[in-house]
Amino acid sequence: xxxxxxxxxxxxxxxxxxxxxxxxxxxxxxxxxxxxxxxxxxxxxxxxxxxxxxxxxxxxxxxxxxxxxxxxxxxxxxxxxxxxxxxxxxxxxxxxxxxxxxxxxxx
Length: 107
Fold this sequence. Notes:
This protein is of the alpha+beta class and 107 residues long. The chain has a domain at 2-69. Helices cover 23% and strands 21% of the residues. The chain is built from one helix and five strands; from the N terminus they run E-E-E-E-E-H. Strands 3-4-5 form a three-stranded antiparallel beta sheet, with no helix packed on it. Strands 1-2 form a two-stranded antiparallel ribbon. A hairpin with a 5-residue loop joins strand 1 and strand 2 (11-14). The chain is flat, with a radius of gyration of 20 Å.
């Protein structure tokens, strides 16, 4: 996540993987893949630098975990209420629920 500032001064975290486009018109407008738009105070070049630094941290962390041998230890914890059976075990694909259709947000 990267931190960005709205025009009113509030700071929020933004997932850079969801950014579709960034426009400087003259305000910086971040458009996400779902169509949501945010007007922020940081210039376009600073957002690009933050996204590059974020991705570099992700790669460096993955590399560090791989070298130290702890990457194979990272597992999702099991649900505490479900200790008797594997709640995600599926015998065949017919037991899977139908996919949820996705729709673009209206402007």
